[in-house]
Amino acid sequence: MDDPLRIAGRTFESRLIVGTGKYASVEETEAAIDASGASIVTVALRRVDLADKSGTSLMALLRKKPWTLLPNTAGCYTADEAVRTLRLARELGIADLVKLEVIGDKDTLYPDNEETLVAAKILVKEGFVVMAYCMDDPILCRKLEDLGCAAVMPLAAPIGSGLGIQNPHNLSLILERAKVPVLVDAGVGTASDAAVAMELGCDGVLMNTAIAHAKDPVLMAKAMRAGVSAGRMAFLAGRMKKSRYANASSPQAGLIE
After folding, report:
1. Please, which pLDDT band fits residue 257 given cuts at 50, 70 and 90?
2. Confidence of residue 139 (pLDDT cuts 50, 70, 90)
3. In sequence order, which ranges of the chain are alpha helices (DSSP H)?
4. Which of 104, 156, 246, 256 has the highest Cβ tally under 10 A?
């Protein structure tokens, strides 16, 4: 199906974005990401050695594959930390398409709304293409869009929780009003969660732990790929209306007596 994900004028074949953390090995990371079919792969800048030139590191894997790299600021707790981290990445030649993440609480890993807005304003002004991780708050998403963010990434549930979409109503409100891509980020646990996000009309889904911590990460990556694809097709197809009563598949009218 010719239905690419479009972000800031760029097109990507897959609507599934995956992370690179928490895998048992670099080899498992590669196998799972390949199985996911992801075009965009995100990496936590503060958790990898960007200057590593060895042939067996995560950075070596990212350099040799055709994936679009989406550096993120996981682990940053202030706007200043996030901005400095991304400036450093730019100096080292990392792409300007970035995922902004400013954490406000170490237990829930919920984002800090105010610091995220401050960082987004600075980064957009400096020419970064910003995809912003945020709470599932329609007002916050609108403000991020107004600042010039290329995409908003509301969470489904706390990072790594696997709880699935906890507030589909808020996501629906965000989708109704957004003029930039909306991608669910964090909280997805299994393929049905990904499918629900896409059926709501989300433009894509980002996940890491749901694949990396599965008993079989490669098989789960394939399941997530199928879930995102099925959910997108269902959204485009348009579901039937719900009814309180039965509607026979074989109509009663015209029966032979």
Report:
1. low
2. very high
3. 26-36, 58-64, 79-91, 113-125, 138-147, 168-177, 191-200, 209-212, 217-237
4. 156
pLDDT given for residue 97 in this prediction: 92
Q: Which residue has the tokens 């589909």?
A: 168
Over 80: is that where the pLDDT of 110 sits? yes
* Cα–Cα distance, 137 to 145 (Å, whole number): 12
Q: What angle do CA 59, 65, 66 make, to 5 degrees?
A: 130
Amino acid at 25: S
Q: How many residues does the chain have?
A: 257
Q: Say how many Å lie between the first and final Cα of the chain, rounded.
A: 46
Q: Are 145 and 163 in contact (CB under 8 A)?
A: no
pTM of the entire predicted model: 0.91
Which among 201, 196, 203 is positioned nearest to 227, based on CA atoms? 196
User: What are 56-80's pLDDT values in tens digits?
Assistant: 788 888 888 999 999 999 999 999 9
Mean pLDDT of the chain: 92
Q: How far apart are CA 167 and CA 157, in angstroms?
A: 8
235 exposed, middle or buried (CB, 10 Å; 0-12, 13-18, 19+)?
middle
Residues with active-site annotation: 99
Burial 59-92, CB ≥16 within 10 A → b, else e: bebbeeeebbbbbbbbbbeebebbbebbeebbee
- Provide the 10 A C-beta neighbour count for residue 253: 5
Residue 53 Cα distances to 26, 41, 64, 93, angstroms: 15, 19, 12, 14
Tell me what the mean pLDDT of segment 29-54 comes to: 86
Say how far apart CA 130 and CA 120 lie, in whole Å: 7
